TrEMBL record:
Species the sequence originates in: Streptosporangium subroseum
Key words of the record: Cell membrane, Membrane, Transmembrane, Transmembrane helix
GO molecular function terms listed in the Swiss-Prot or TrEMBL record: branched-chain amino acid transmembrane transporter activity
Membrane disposition: Multi-pass membrane protein
Protein name (Swiss-Prot/TrEMBL): Amino acid/amide ABC transporter membrane protein 2, HAAT family
Signal peptide boundaries: none
Length: 344
């Protein structure tokens, strides 16, 4: 028989790997928070060093990142395909524009309302997700994006029809000393930070674990007691809310909305950008926002006659080099550099 000392030693050896994994996770989380703090500091410093046009471009990157954050929640974490995410983006944009134009609502006050309206619409349209999956679900969301533009043009008295609505942009308070482009940038940055923190908390909760279970194996998730219909619908609602918030900030930044700004190509570009950025990764929406903002302009510079062709070829090239997205490529490069440094 083993003595108490031997039993204690065996228990300690058995617990050592668990403690090692826990410490590794803590160290990884600490590094991630440090990286995010550095990125946030750089983001706060950038608008004071760049020309207004570059500040505008970075602002649009943040806007797209919030929209892609919602799409990533739906596609990357819940495993549901959406080809109509641009419709939720448009709902937030037009909701904010109508409140500002018709009711003279303060810009900041339109954000929670636009997000709430998009959440409610996502909740309603998420009901088909209870019974549909794969291509059938993609067709339903595609139909939403297709009929949205004619619908916006039809109600001209409210939406401005094909001419759209022209709005004033948020004016920076005098005490900030900021220019208009810098103020818009910091508003977008604040919304982005809050959105990422909210998504991070959501995915680390019971809801996030349930979404991952639904994504990995619906049958097994249902056996374990996960309510598929509830969590699928909730994923649509949350993703729509993020897209609606992004559309609201888009209205502030651009100062103009029209139906043609939210055509089907917007939904397709959003889906392509989150796939390129990295599905299911925390940095994927930000990388996808950078891709969505800068790659079309690069394509335009390469060939004015066929920017769409260049854009498509660049997507193919990126997916060939990084099949798991730019976030996966960055992770592999970081691990390779770490191994090389450890060997030295």
């Amino acid at each position: 028989m083993s003595g108490p000392a031997e039993v204690t030693e065996k228990a300690a050896r058995a617990a050592a790997p668990t403690r090692g994994r826990s410490l590794a996770r803590v160290a990884t989380a600490r590094r991630q928070w440090i990286v995010m703090a550095v990125l946030l500091a750089v983001a706060c410093y950038a608008p004071f060093q760049l020309v207004p046009f570059r500040v505008f471009q970075l602002t649009m990157v943040l806007v797209y990142a919030v929209a892609l954050l919602g799409l990533n929640l739906l596609v990357g974490h819940a495993g549901q395909i959406s080809l109509g995410h641009g419709a939720f983006f448009a709902v937030g944009a037009y909701g904010s524009a109508i409140m500002i134009d018709r009711w003279d609502t303060p810009h900041l006050a339109t954000l929670p309302v636009a997000a709430a309206v998009a959440f409610a619409l996502g909740l309603a349209l998420g009901l088909p997700a209870m019974r549909l999956r794969g291509l059938y679900l993609a067709l339903v969301t595609l139909a939403i994006a297709i009929f949205l533009v004619p619908l916006l043009k039809r109600f001209e008295a409210v939406t401005g029809g094909s001419m759209g609505l022209t709005l004033g942009k948020p004016v920076p308070p005098a005490w900030t000393g900021l220019a208009e482009d810098q103020w818009l940038y910091f508003l977008a940055l604040a919304v982005t930070v809050v959105a990422f923190l909210l998504a991070h908390g959501l995915l680390r909760s019971r809801v996030g674990r349930a979404l991952h279970a639904v994504r990995d194996n619906e049958a097994a998730a249902e056996v374990m007691g996960v309510r598929l219909s509830f969590y699928k619908t909730l994923a649509f609602a949350w993703s729509a809310m993020f897209a609606g918030a992004a559309g609201c900030v888009y209205t502030w930044v651009i100062g103009f909305v029209s139906p043609d700004s939210f055509a089907l190509t917007l939904s397709i570009t959003l889906l392509a950008s989150i796939v390129v950025g990295g599905l299911g990764s925390f940095s994927g929406p930000l990388l996808g926002g950078l891709f969505m903002m800068f790659v079309p302009s690069i394509s335009q510079d390469v060939n004015d006659a066929a920017p769409g062709v260049i854009f498509g070829l660049l997507i193919i090239a990126v997916m060939y080099v990084a099949p798991t997205g730019l976030a996966g490529l960055a992770g592999r490069m970081t691990r390779s550099i770490t191994k090389i440094l450890r060997k030295e």
